[in-house]
Amino acid sequence: MRWADLTGFQRDIIEAVARLEDSNTERSGQAIRNVLEKTHSEVLHGRLYQNLDSLIDDRLLERGSIDGRTNRYTLTVDAHRLLHDRLERLADACGEQVIVTDGGQR
Which domains does the chain have, with CATH numbers? Predict the structure, then answer.
């Protein structure tokens, strides 16, 4: 799977989950929707969950359980790799360099 193979909305979902993971915030569908609605005027339930399911099928997200009714979404290694590759391409396009600050790990 390549970044370019995803729809813009799916890319935004991956970025939203990454932001929630980074802030150590619960990654429920509602939390993802809240992040997305900062840049999308309205995120319809069906559209969100259809795309979450597609990203799971593409092995970019994993679904776990928070409680009996609420799912937790987590980025896979492949999704993290896509984000890092995208970061490097954007930095290169801007003439910038990505500095690794975690001891050499991606």
Answer: 3-93 (1.10.10.10)
Q: Is the dihedral of CA 24, 75, 30, 44 positive or negative?
A: positive
pTM, whole model, 2 decimals? 0.86
What angle in degrees, to the nearest 10, is found between the helix axes of 8-22 and 77-93?
A: 100
Of 68, 52, 70, 69, the residue nearest 60 (C-alpha)? 52
The helix or strand, by DSSP H or E, that contains position 65, with its residue range, turns out to be: strand 61-65
> pLDDT tens digits for the chain (106 residues)?
898 999 999 999 999 999 999 888 889 999 999 999 999 989 999 999 999 999 999 999 999 998 888 999 999 999 999 999 898 888 889 988 888 776 655 4
Give CA–CA dist 21/32, Å, rounded. Answer: 11
